[in-house]
Amino acid sequence: MDRWISTFLEAQAAELDAARNTRLAYGRDLKDFAAWLERRGGDFAGADRATVEAYLIFCEAQGLSKATRARRLSAIRQLYRFAHEEGWRADNPALRIKGPGKAQHLPQTLDIAEVDRLLEAARDKGRSASDQIRNRCLMELLYATGMRVSEMVEMPAAAARGDPQMILVRGKGGKERMVPLSPPAREALAGWLAARDAAEALAVKAGKPASRFLFPGSGAGGHLTREYFYVLIKEIAVLAGVDPAKVTPHTLRHAFATHLLAGGADLRVIQTLLGHADLSSTEIYTHVLDEHLKALVLQRHPLARDEG
């Protein structure tokens, strides 16, 4: 079983570039599962769904938290997914096991109509034409890429030059990923670069230092701050007639993921685009989509209506 674990962790590091802390957690969890199997005279190759479920019951009896048990199940799932791909197993016995009832706070998201209204309102938000162009670009980029707001405001202008079809995003821990741009985002980006460069040229002529950031700001960091954008997106929501309580920079990131999933995108592709180290972080969007589909059926299906 040690060979399974070591080979799996090496693949996580080499192929998926999993974070060191994620690999360490997986290693600890899988070694605990292996030790439990050994005490029962079993191994990874022979374990079935009932075996994995029995292990989770054992973990609960040991007093482990729901979060820890959820993480262990995720580690076991990923191990067996890898084993299946390598041909070590014909199945993944953990694939359809329900999680240990961890209370999930599903991320708030927006429907496509609400996003469209936000993007349209951003065009008119700003004291000057330059502000309006910038605000449109901010919103289009955020929804088109699913970037974290910190990744966007700290993006260097050099990353956006040359009308790119893909943009380089530097994420947590300095990890880089390439994210495709939609045609509206490319158009908004080109418009903003022209306005930004014109403003920068005037600033440099006036003796001010040039900014390396795509979205320059007057703060200590030299770029637009997350706090500024948080206030801005709330104001855009009011202008769009969308409840500002449900609109934050992260809400657009959630909308990006949920709408991709609804359109048939693979969960692992979404994981890569979002920059998630662990697939379990991305799996939450399947639950968000389930809730939306459930609500849609209750609203639209004739047999689901209360005839009163």
Automatic annotation (TrEMBL):
Which keywords describe this protein according to UniProt?
Cell cycle, Cell division, Chromosome partition, Cytoplasm, DNA integration, DNA recombination, DNA-binding
> Its GO CC terms?
cytoplasm
Where does the Core-binding (CB) domain start and stop, copy by copy?
1-84
Q: Where in the cell is it found?
A: Cytoplasm
Name the InterPro entries on file.
CB (IPR044068), DNA_brk_join_enz (IPR011010), Integrase-like_cat_sf (IPR013762), Integrase_catalytic (IPR002104), Integrase_recombinase_N (IPR010998), Integrase_SAM-like_N (IPR004107), Tyrosine_recombinase_XerC/XerD (IPR023009), Tyrosine_recombinase_XerCD (IPR050090)
Residues annotated as domain Tyr recombinase: 105-298
Q: Which GO terms describe its biological process?
A: cell division; chromosome segregation; DNA transposition
Database matches in Pfam families: Phage_int_SAM_1, Phage_integrase
* Active site per UniProt: R148, K172, H250, R253, H276, Y285 (o-(3'-phospho-dna)-tyrosine intermediate)
Q: What does this protein do?
A: Site-specific tyrosine recombinase, which acts by catalyzing the cutting and rejoining of the recombining DNA molecules. The XerC-XerD complex is essential to convert dimers of the bacterial chromosome into monomers to permit their segregation at cell division. It also contributes to the segregational stability of plasmids.
Listed GO molecular functions? DNA binding; tyrosine-based site-specific recombinase activity
Spell out the protein name for this chain.
Tyrosine recombinase XerC
What organism is the protein native to? Answer: Cereibacter changlensis JA139
The record's HAMAP family line, in alphabetical order, gives: Recomb_XerC_XerD
Its subunit composition reads: Forms a cyclic heterotetrameric complex composed of two molecules of XerC and two molecules of XerD.
